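B., you asked whether I could sanity-check this one before it goes into the benchmark set. Here's the sequence:
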Amino acid sequence: MAQVSEEREDRVDATGEQPAAAPGTPGPAQAGTPATPANPETGAPAASGPGEAGRAPNGLAASVTGSAAETPTAPGSGSAAETPTAPGTSSAAETSAVSGAGDAGQASRESAASGAGEASRLSAAGTAAADTAAADPAAANTPVPEAKKASKAGRNLPAAIGVALLLGAAIIVSLLTVRYLFIGIIAIAIAVGTFEFAGVLRRVADVRVAVIPVLVGGQAMIWLAWPFGREGALTAFVLTVLACLLWRLPGGAKGYLRDISASVFAAAYLPLFGAFAAMLVPPADGVGRVLTFLIGVVASDTGGYIAGVLGGKHPMAPSISPKKTWEGFGGSLVGGVVAGALTLSLLLDGHVWQGVIFGVAIVLTATLGDLVESLIKRDLGVKDMGTLLPGHGGIMDRLDSLLPSAVVSWLLLSAFVPI
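And here's what the prediction gave me:
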């Protein structure tokens, strides 16, 4: 009860209310009278006077005005909380009147001690927090741990480096042993990328790519580019488009143009562009051509990534790819130009100026491919096209800069270093 007295004194200091009873007046705990018998129908304490009739059945007194526990009452007025009860008279004085969220916990203990009924339930969120602090004082002083800051690199860097090294090793081994195995790597990557792209479109936008015609026609584009070059790839592409038109006919008119457009785009963006990378392999210096192409793209991506992470401050296209900066683009130019000048002159016996032009062109197409892929993902509302490659996303997320660069590489290398 000492705690109740202290809380009442605090209430007087804070609000200016007068104490409930004069000093020396016996309090509820000193009355020594039996508790008021409960109403047999409701289970609530029976009112002992006119003042009790207006009290809430849950035992909480009215706040500020009209509160039997806060306002002194005249003898005989019927306030069980302030007036001693005559012998033999039932009283509910054991229940303390508490107003406000801060007194809710004490009200519950007083109500339980008196046996007047079930303790009043707390309804305010602040009261619940106060109860938690009272139950475990240490919890109130426990600092909330800060959320782990995201890596500035924006990805799992060790996993990304490991996957890149494994893919690079597989490509180098294929080129240095049987270079035509590189065409098989392209074919596998294009097939997986097609599945990823079609799956995202179906899942997110309910667009149905003609998967079978695009897969079969895509493999035909890549493998026919080996013996027949551009003619083989373009012929397979045209036949793939016709197959998509026929494949979608049974589905009806609803969404036909939408699905056919997505199918043709998938056939052009993935296998047709990939066929130009396959056309770099057959010439006698095919290994040098493939390495010049790959090293140029990797140098562009790596230079842009490092420069962007270390000093990127000015966004290049914030509405498309917020993390791509002009500083990163400058790093891509440096990496791509240096790589182009070295590889084209050392691996293909070309001129340095040709390598510089080649490097600039690769940087532009690689950046364009990255932005196009970002725009596609933003349009679809996805972060990555897949989850196959830890630290990178899906195969499509690694082909974004390679696919358009393969077309430009074949065109420029055919012009600078004729077969």
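One thing to flag: Confidence is low (pLDDT under 50) at residues 1-130, 144-150. Otherwise nothing jumped out at me.
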